[in-house]
């Protein structure tokens, strides 16, 4: 069983003052009951507002976009109260159908929603384990005619909990053979820590780390 948790890690590498985010990473999304108020808070603290509050193209949702000091984009989405304010991670893919199939077969996610926007030349697949208003979802975006993106050196990985990293790792290997992807670290405990993980790349080169649920909870004790 997989489990997505709202933990967001930020790392500092000694001696490195800037990173290249690349063209493939899209944004994180944060839900709020008042987008305009949050935008003003960001602006008051010196943040960079790149899109003022307003309805999304082709829809009714009120959104805005801001950037943090490192250049990461955040979409602010106006919604009712939610237990998971960090609600989306958007990654671009060169083949949406392949990406959807990979996350369905390798990680047991469901396609929650497919959004076709031919007038703007893109299609989105919302992937997750529960409905969008209940947990974090993965927003896979395909831009017409673009099959490859640069990854840069800033984005690291998505972490997902699993009850059995060994069994999950074997499933990922089978799916890799069919759809592409690569195991980057075989299942097993981390030296000095003991937490069992397995890591891999999806067909577009995005990294995911599967973390043993019980081991992770022990880390938090």
TrEMBL record:
The question of whether Lyase is a record keyword is answered with yes
Q: Does the keyword Repeat apply?
A: yes
List the Gene Ontology MF annotations in alphabetical order. lactoylglutathione lyase activity; metal ion binding
Q: What sequence ranges are listed for the domain VOC?
A: 1-79, 85-213
Q: Which one GO biological process term can you cite for this protein?
A: methylglyoxal catabolic process to D-lactate via S-lactoyl-glutathione
The EC number(s) given in the record are 4.4.1.5
* Catalytic activity field: (R)-S-lactoylglutathione = methylglyoxal + glutathione
The biological pathway it contributes to is:
Secondary metabolite metabolism; methylglyoxal degradation; (R)-lactate from methylglyoxal: step 1/2
User: What top-tier enzyme class does this entry carry?
Assistant: lyase
- Output the PROSITE patterns linked to this UniProt entry: GLYOXALASE_I_2, VOC
List the keywords (alphabetical): Lyase, Metal-binding, Repeat
Q: Which InterPro entries match?
A: Glyas_Bleomycin-R_OHBP_Dase, Glyas_Fos-R_dOase_dom, Glyoxalase_1_CS, VOC_core
Gene Ontology CC, one term? cytoplasm
Known function:
Catalyzes the conversion of hemimercaptal, formed from methylglyoxal and glutathione, to S-lactoylglutathione.
Q: Give the family this protein belongs to, as stated in its UniProt record.
A: Belongs to the glyoxalase I family.
Q: What is this protein called?
A: lactoylglutathione lyase
Species this chain originates from: Eutrema salsugineum
What does the record give as the organism's lineage?
Eukaryota, Viridiplantae, Streptophyta, Embryophyta, Tracheophyta
